[in-house]
Specification:
Length: 187
């Protein structure tokens, strides 16, 4: 990762972890903290930033995800899409080199999915390296450079996004895409 062999026993895995942002399926926000506090606590405790510096970084990232005006809100006062965007802003506030997304839209109502995907699309256009686990095939086809289709923890097919999604060569990939892209299709 980032030019380092992560399985080498001499690799400082904690240092590498500090360069990775993570956005989970279930937003994992602290419900007793405001949006701004959620976005500053790790900066202050892990990166040692002052309160003022952490808040400036958090506010910049909240603006980036379209939530500059929600800093004083509690998570339960936000929609699921807003909560997920706060989670993205929180991860961005740690200045990661790479972002990992674990099914970031799966816990959202269908009408809220678009707002999260737009933020992720913007990040991709800005050059953020992202690894995304998703069933959003149109998003993956349009945004990803490479797609890996996995089944049972094994890579079944990999290649350029458009190729794997539009013209898969492996039968298992074809079956999956047929079911996902044509959900009313029955065998």
């Amino acid at each position: 990762m980032l030019g380092q062999e992560i399985t080498d026993e001499d690799t400082d895995i904690d240092a590498l972890r500090s360069r990775v942002g993570m956005v989970f399926q279930q937003f994992n926000l602290f419900n007793h903290m405001t949006v701004l506090e959620n976005c500053t606590v790790a900066q202050r405790k892990v990166l040692g930033r002052s309160k003022a510096e952490a808040e400036a970084v958090a506010l910049k990232n909240l603006a980036h995800v379209g939530l500059a005006d929600r800093g004083s809100a509690l998570p339960n006062q936000l929609s699921g899409g807003q909560q997920q965007r706060v989670a993205i802003a929180r991860a961005l506030s740690m200045n990661p080199d790479i972002m990992l997304f674990d099914e970031p839209t799966s816990a959202l109502d269908p009408e809220l999915v678009g707002e999260v995907l737009k933020v992720m699309r913007d990040l991709a256009e800005e050059g953020m390296t992202m690894m995304v686990v998703t069933h959003e095939m149109a998003f993956a086809r349009d945004v990803a450079d490479r797609v890996l289709f996995m089944d049972g923890g094994v890579i079944v097919e990999e290649g350029p996004a458009h190729q794997v999604i539009s013209a898969p060569t492996q039968e298992r990939t074809q079956q999956f895409l047929e079911r996902v892209l044509n959900p009313t299709h029955t065998e």
